[in-house]
Amino acid sequence: MKSCDDKCIRIALCQIRCSLGNKKENIAKMKSILEEYSADLYVFPEMFLTGYMIRDEVFTLSESIRDNSFQAVSDLSKQYGVDIVFGAAVNDDIPGIIRNSAVAIHSDGLLEKYDKIHLANFGSFDECLYFTPGENLKIIDVQGFKIGLIICYDIFFPELIKSYALAGVDGVICISASPVTSMTAFETVMPARAVENAIYMVYVNQAGPQLNQVFFGGSGAVDPSGMQMVKNVYFNSDVTVVSLSKLHLARAKKLRPTIRDSLAFKRNIDVLGQE
Q1: pLDDT averaged over the chain?
Q2: Residue ranges per domain, the chain?
Q3: Confidence at residue 266, expressed as pLDDT on a 0 to 100 scale
């Protein structure tokens, strides 16, 4: 693994085929990855806890963040002294309200979550039948790195990532359950989001078949200049580890000051709106 002299964090892109509907087995898979790979933050795909294609079972398999599955992952986080981000169906203790969430569990016991804002409701996707959309951004702190969280279809809304960038994040993590039909689209927008915001973009996708869907895998990380840093295999389980550097990020922001100029543009628009 490449070391660096400046402030860095190592992120494990855990593109692991999950067991549909089997939360205990999927948590066991998490543990095996924590034992095998060294990183500061481990990222698993959208809906990893249960698998994506659980459909109506979401109403019985979803849990509150205070329930057993999340406590089990929290115990792993504390045991190994690492942070973990993974996808899950989370109920908010309100009847009928279930979120498609990116759950962040920290080694100190802190638990945070981002609820998917843009639900996929087209083609073979009908998330609006099962989930309530989120409303708020979520920035987590991992050893001094500020990281924004998004889920799958969210990545196609540039204003969402721009909002994170304007809030000063160092990178954005997108967990996903993207089928092979979306592969070209995701691989096109990932470097674009990195370049236009001068941030790191990390993408962790489901892989392989689940019922009538085939997820393409192909997880990866892109640096602030749009260069591919790591790339996971297609269609199967794979884990890669990438190092994010504060020094490299600062250089990229200086070379292409899109956020500085976005703030200047926003101030000009605000002035025009007051005239």
Answers
A1: 94
A2: 8-274
A3: 61
Straight-line distance from the first to the last Cα atom of the chain, in angstroms, rounded to the nearest whole number: 55
CB 268 within 8 A of CB 255: no
The tens digit of pLDDT for each residue in 137-167 reads 999 999 999 999 999 999 999 999 999 999 9
Contacts of 190 (CB under 8 A, 6+ apart): 155, 174, 201, 203, 220, 222
d(CA 220, CA 203): 5
Summarize the confidence of residues 181-202 as an average pLDDT. Answer: 97
CA distance 212 to 1: 37
Domain spanning 8-274, CATH class: alpha beta
Q: Which candidate, 165, 178, 248, places its Cα nearest to that of 219?
A: 178
Residue 214 is classified by DSSP as E
All residues at 6 or more sequence positions from 185 whose CB lies less than 8 Å from its CB, including other chains: 156
- Phi-psi group of 135: left, alpha or beta (phi > 0 → left; psi -120 to 50 → alpha; rest → beta): alpha
pLDDT at 18 over 70: yes
Q: Residue 94: what pLDDT?
A: 79
